[in-house]
Amino acid sequence: MATSFTAPKLLPRLSSPFAEIFPFSSHTQHPFSFPRHHHRFQLQQQRRRLGFVVRAESENGSEPCGTTMTSHYRRGSGGVRASRFAANSGASVAVCFHFLLFLPRPPAALAEQPNHDWSTLMANKNAELQRLTGIYKNILGNAGVTLIEGRGKILDPHTVDVDGKLYTARHILISVGGRPFIPDIPGSEYVIDSDAALDLPSKPQKIAIVGGGYIALEFAGIFNDQGFVGEQMSLRGIKFHIEESPQAIVKSADSSLSLKTKKGTIEGFSHIMFATGRRPNTKNLGLESVGVKMNRNGAIEVDEYSRTTVPSIWAVGDVTDRINLTPVALMEGGALAKTIFQNEPTKPDYSSAVPSAVFSQPPIGQVGLTEEQDFTGYKEYGNIDVYTANFRPLKATLSGLPDRVFMKLIVCVKTNKVLGLHMCGEDSAEITQGFAVAIKAGLTKADFDATVGIHPTSAEEFVTMRTPTRKIRQGPESEGKTGLEAKAAAGV
């Protein structure tokens, strides 16, 4: 299985086993891979929310509401952004919602609280949900957006039914997000998903997490107090079962759960959580009846401007299954508002410089191309030089901790342009966000080398790498080894 980097070797640390992770390859990515379609993660209540934003002339006795209509279901960052921007552009906008609740990616903060009290954690989480709900309502209200509570269904290209009341719209925007996907296997009724995981009345005694992506790693850190990616997580009691496919869950007389995989059965879990990806939340919205085309996974198909196969209906965010990240949904919502209301046709920019992070412990940050990426579609880049650094940060050396940091730069030999930047270690998300500006701007390795570092920091390593760890060549002149073989030889 391809990986972006390999966790560095560490000194052993004693810890009792608590969580076990099963990266289910059929539905999830390996913890160290960076797929094109990232799964954006937010903690949500099990209570669902659905909303629409509308504006148009009154027709057939329907109530006019606006020029845009946005639907929300569980998530809706892109819809909220589009609604606010549309209202600020002079459009009359309304949002229909059902339990409008948001909580953007708190696992990093939660996992960084060792020995946290579960009841206190849940109380704080609920308080944060209410606080953010108020903030979003105030943002929309201050922008002049009308809020309509209820469940909506699209009846035709310009009409929405909200609990029996009809609203007409010149444009309809669907921003319903996604929902957890659980494979249909025997015993699946005993598992929990990410929506239910943080509504548990007590902390799991021992949990199996099926999945190897963002959500699985982040929750492993929460349930295990703190965790480390790969080998580091193993040192803190998190055991990885690589490339095992779950076949069944069995509940014993004592209510404990066993997970049967293709390699055997593991017993004694109090909970089993599936983090096996998400599917677009497009059921029961009336999309098929009005002619909105969807793919086999239920994702809405859109053009470069986020318009669906029905000219008056648009879609942004995870429901389109493009790049499933909250900031990308915000970008799409902003671009949509410009296209429709500011007479400024704007395409969302899905260039290779979209940064992302996994908030595990330590976190992972990345932006741009990976070493293992298929470069057949990037022939203009040609040969690649890979620069890496693997070290113990000063904080670890002074405290005696075995923590390490791993960094990587992907550089085009022909242009000297930095095509990708990757980091695993403390503060990697913050550091990656800063360097993402440089990657987006097309800075070269020479620009990195000419930049003065801040000492002592981990980030300065990115501007002090001088010698390639390995060279990847597209032709027979390839120097050294490539791929996993090259990594093994380099000791990373």
Automatic annotation (TrEMBL):
Name of the featured protein: Glutathione reductase
Residue ranges annotated for the Pyridine nucleotide-disulphide oxidoreductase dimerisation domain, each copy included: 354-465
Family (UniProt): Belongs to the class-I pyridine nucleotide-disulfide oxidoreductase family.
InterPro entries with a match to the protein in the record: FAD/NAD-bd_sf, FAD/NAD-binding_dom, FAD/NAD-linked_Rdtase_dimer_sf, GSHR/TRXR-like, Pyr_nucl-diS_OxRdtase_dimer
Keywords from the named record: Disulfide bond, FAD, Flavoprotein, Oxidoreductase, Redox-active center
Species whose genome carries this gene: Hibiscus syriacus
Keyword Transit peptide attributed: no
Cofactor(s) recorded in Swiss-Prot or TrEMBL: FAD
Keyword Cell cycle found: no
GO biological process: cell redox homeostasis; cellular response to oxidative stress; glutathione metabolic process
GO CC term, one of those recorded: mitochondrion
Entry-linked Pfam families: Pyr_redox_2, Pyr_redox_dim
One example GO MF annotation: flavin adenine dinucleotide binding
Residue ranges of the region described as Disordered: 472-492
Residue ranges of every copy of the FAD/NAD(P)-binding domain listed in the record: 76-227, 229-333
SUPFAM superfamilies (UniProt xref): FAD/NAD(P)-binding domain, FAD/NAD-linked reductases, dimerisation (C-terminal) domain
